[in-house]
């Protein structure tokens, strides 16, 4: 009974035709698309914040709190200098300010007394002038003492060398026990928070780059990031005929370090490319092909020449396809359908 039913279904089913092989396949069309015209160049990653800290006062190095490759926070103390002399100057400045305050307070009281008596016309104008001058002089001495105290505090602070920004120590230029003098280099470091890429660009490309002001940096993981700013130096290197161009990167880019070589892409205009979904391309040994569906819904495997990927899921076709032709999005299923189509054609 079951065999009879199966035979009846076969007799009632519509006959297979070669065109039916491609009717239900998901497809997409090759499209001629206007895209940015790009030029690729090598670049070098640089740290925007890189500095060598120098001593601003003299003193023996008592302690170095960091070493090469250590990470430090902004404002953290990294070197301590001997501060005996600076503390003595601070104590002296504080004492002189106290004395100046006492003199100013005494002069203020004397001025108020003289002013009251002068208003009652019991003293001469010269006495009033003398009290006024004494008050002004004591005020000036007070301000001078206050300034000297601030300077002494600053000199004491100079004995504690602090990190100007968060970053990594790259070089130590002094050791514990050595004496630092003003202007002497102590330690170097860089910050990885803000990076840029320096590129030497041929002078023939500079007008287009100035006009477009758009560039991307290719990261080690094959992704790309757009430069937030493009800076072109206003002069060329006479030896190479190239302009220095700096590409500023967004903050906190993982996987990039100063000194690394990277690829960059500069937009220098517009061009047209024939694009198809990258998933539709078949790679077999050295053959690159796609399954094409013609206007009669017939499948065929056609060799093509591909270019670069675009937008992650599209790929450029350099030869083998024309604008508007349909390609199968599922190459595996399309291959199976092509076998059925070939068999159906042979049976006919």
UniProtKB/TrEMBL annotation:
Xref: SUPFAM superfamilies: HlyD-like secretion proteins (SSF111369)
Domain Multidrug resistance protein MdtA-like alpha-helical hairpin: 90-159
A GO CC term attached to the entry: efflux pump complex
Multidrug resistance protein MdtA-like barrel-sandwich hybrid domain boundaries: 49-186
Keywords from the named record: Coiled coil, Signal
Domain of life: Bacteria
N-terminal signal peptide: 1-21
Occurrences of domain CusB-like beta-barrel (ranges): 197-266
Coiled coil location: 83-110
GO molecular function, one term: efflux transmembrane transporter activity
PANTHER family: MULTIDRUG RESISTANCE PROTEIN MDTA, RESISTANCE-NODULATION-CELL DIVISION (RND) EFFLUX MEMBRANE FUSION PROTEIN-RELATED
Similarity field: Belongs to the membrane fusion protein (MFP) (TC 8.A.1) family.
NCBIfam families documented for this protein: RND_mfp
The name this protein goes by in its record: Efflux transporter periplasmic adaptor subunit
């Amino acid at each position: 009974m079951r065999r009879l039913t199966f035979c009846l279904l076969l007799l009632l089913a519509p006959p297979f035709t070669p065109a039916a092989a491609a009717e239900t396949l998901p497809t997409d069309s090759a499209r001629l698309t206007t895209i940015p015209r790009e030029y690729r160049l090598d670049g070098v990653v640089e740290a925007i914040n890189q500095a060598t800290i120098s001593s601003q006062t003299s003193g023996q190095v008592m302690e170095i709190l960091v070493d090469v490759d250590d990470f430090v926070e902004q404002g953290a103390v990294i070197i301590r200098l001997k501060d005996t002399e600076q503390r003595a100057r601070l104590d002296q400045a504080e004492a002189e300010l106290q004395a100046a305050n006492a003199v100013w307070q005494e002069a203020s009281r004397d001025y108020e007394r003289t002013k009251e008596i002068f208003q009652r016309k019991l003293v001469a104008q010269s006495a009033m002038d003398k009290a006024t001058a004494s008050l002004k002089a004591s005020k000036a001495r007070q301000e001078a003492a206050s300034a000297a105290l601030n300077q002494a505090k600053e000199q004491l602070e100079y004995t504690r060398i602090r990190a100007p920004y968060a970053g990594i120590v790259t070089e130590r230029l002094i050791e514990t026990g050595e004496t630092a003098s003003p202007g002497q280099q102590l330690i170097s470091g860089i910050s990885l928070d803000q990076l840029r890429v320096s590129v030497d660009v041929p002078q023939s490309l500079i007008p287009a780059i100035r006009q477009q002001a758009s560039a991307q940096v290719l990261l080690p993981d094959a992704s790309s990031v757009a430069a937030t700013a493009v800076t072109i130096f206003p002069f060329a290197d006479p030896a190479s005929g190239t302009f220095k161009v700096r590409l500023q990167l967004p903050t906190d880019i993982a996987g990039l370090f100063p000194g690394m070589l990277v690829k960059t892409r500069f937009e220098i205009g517009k061009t047209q490319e024939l694009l198809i979904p990258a998933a539709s391309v078949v790679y077999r040994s050295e053959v690159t092909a796609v399954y094409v569906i013609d206007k009669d819904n017939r499948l065929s495997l056609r060799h093509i020449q591909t270019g670069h990927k675009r937008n992650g899921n599209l790929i450029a076709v350099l030869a083998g396809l024309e604008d508007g032709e349909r390609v199968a999005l599922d190459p595996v299923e399309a291959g199976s359908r092509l076998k059925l189509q070939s068999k159906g054609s042979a049976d006919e």
